[in-house]
Amino acid sequence: MKIAMVSEHASPLAALGGVDAGGQNVHVAALARQLGERGHDVTVYTRRDHPDLPETVSFGPGVTVVAVPAGPAAPIAKDEILPWIPRFGRWLHDRWLFDRPDVVHSHFWMSGLAALDAAERLGIPVVHTYHALGSVKRRHQGLADTSPRERIEAEAAIGRRADAIIATCPDEVDELIRMRIPRTTAQVVPCGVDSSVFHPHVEPLERPERPRLLSVGRLVPRKGIETTIDALRHLRDAELVIAGGPPAAALHHDPEITRLRWLAAQAGVADRVRFLGTVGRDRLPALMRSASVVVSVPWYEPFGLVTLEAMACGVPVVASAVGGQKETVVNGVTGLLVPPRQPLVLARALRGLLDDPVRRAAYGFAGADRARVRYGWSRIAAETLAAYEDVISSRGLSPLDGRPRAAG
Ligand code: UDP
């Protein structure tokens, strides 16, 4: 199958942990690689955000990343990309006129707009994954939400225009129904985890002297790191290590780190909180293995790859009962679910777990098992490909040449 993926701001080539580089980058990169390894021809279209970026970069067997010229060849915050999306869409259209994919999979709402503008005119089916929904963001962030005003309306329209929506958890489907997107358009295919990289047999990076809580992710307020800092006041023997944000050398200039450090000082726990900056994926499994518990307590979470990666490493998780985490974590089996933004409840859950090595080991074991069986790439890739095949055949096209199927 010839597959075009569109991911306007989240390039598979980007460094992770920055404000706009997280789960979507990881998911698009992994999905493209997995499909390429299965013999499909995958092109990922992303916005050219650096003058030195070549137009095409090979990204493993069968996968090419194409840098689309739309807007300045420099990083732009994702909330500022919208004005360049019509140009992005026109470029895709001109490209697909002579290099026609069988199916387009767009990631994030602005990619959906560009992909649909191009593909609708050419009769190419489009599958869309939102990764995050503006309505949810607005509900939780209120005035702090800097998304373009058009976002919520545009997301509803994408849901009505796309051939299929791949939601990453059942919670998202509920939200799509609230947006009046037909239920039959959406199906759930969760994100996958590479269990050859994230697995329980990785040697821990170090053996810390005290119980280690680990937080991994983009350093933005909605990730709820301050809840864990607050909980640390009640866990006097534990340390909190925080991975994510800028590279280690730039930690002192990061406003969110400054804010979190100040909160830690106010709570009297600053000496037990350590910021690592962004940690490469090659070191992440060993870092996770060095933790007693991985804590992920965002206010809301479309999927939550970190929680799944920790489970895959056999590390118990304490996660907020939101979005995708309600599905990945089986409460009391692979970890614990707690309400978001409740430091006391979090502290109590962590205390119980830190004091009970047998339960930690049991959660870790069950988590690794669940990650491998339910979220391993062989299953996730097969479910994604089935969604592509469905939209191709329901348009009466043939997956191999993208042309109408011969009668009979
Ligand atoms: N990540 C990483 N290094 C870091 C911080 C994050 O590799 O320093 C990765 C993390 O392992 C995960 C992704 O970035 O794969 C974050 O995805 P998640 O779904 O947890 O959150 P999002 O960024 O999508 O909100």
TrEMBL record:
GO terms for molecular function: glycosyltransferase activity. It comes from the Bacteria. Residues 22-195 form the Glycosyltransferase subfamily 4-like N-terminal domain. One of its GO terms (biological process) is carbohydrate derivative biosynthetic process. Residues 206-364 form the Glycosyl transferase family domain. Gene3D superfamilies: Glycogen Phosphorylase B. Keywords: Glycosyltransferase, Transferase. PANTHER family: SULFOQUINOVOSYL TRANSFERASE SQD2 (PTHR45947:SF3). This is Glycosyltransferase. It comes from Microbispora oryzae.
